[in-house]
Amino acid sequence: MLPTEEACFRAVLRACQDHADAMLACGTPPRPTALVTRLDHGRIVDAALARMDMLDEASVVRFVQETITDPEVDVIGLSCVLRLAEFDDDAPAAPPVTRDVVVIYLVSRERETWVANDIDSAARRLVRGTLDMSRGSNTFIAAPALIH
């Protein structure tokens, strides 16, 4: 992995987290958005924010796959709120404890990863997750076919 690649992912992650924080500070839950960016040496030089809440999952995947092929686009940051359910192994009959998190997918032409961010409802801000470039994902970029 190139150092600039990680810097680019970090810049887009921070921008997505800042946007979610701004929405939470206003008292509204973060809505699904796509931040389409062009970067230079780890700095965002151009960006567009698109609302994704009116699209189904297949449309979002198609949007990302088509947009990331544009030579003017370097990284796309996708934010959405997901409800996680955590089960207690010591009490399997108990209902799960649920919590909302903001998941941010970071997608370039070559790789993608994701970061989960807890929501601090009382403070109306994110508990920011950290970027782990070793965490892969095949949500938007098709995995290469294995040849035998």
Please tag this protein with its features:
6 strands; 35% strand; 2 helices; globular; 148 residues; 23% helix; alpha+beta
Tell me about the largest β-sheet: 6 strands, antiparallel
* Secondary-structure element order, N to C: HEEHEEEE
As an assembly, this protein is single chain
Total beta strands: 6
The residue fraction in helices comes out at 10-25%
User: What is the rounded Rg?
Assistant: 16 Å
What does this molecule look like?
With 148 residues, the chain is an alpha+beta fold. Helices cover 23% and strands 35% of the residues. It contains two helices and six strands. It has helices spanning 3-25, 57-67, and strands spanning 33-40, 43-51, 75-86, 97-107, 112-120, 125-127. Strands 2-1-3-4-5-6 form a six-stranded antiparallel beta sheet, covered by helices on one side. Strand 1 (33-40) and strand 2 (43-51) form a beta hairpin. The protein starts with a helix and ends in a 21-residue tail after the last strand. The mean pLDDT is 90.
Provide a compact summary of the structure.
This protein is α+β, with helices and mostly antiparallel strands.
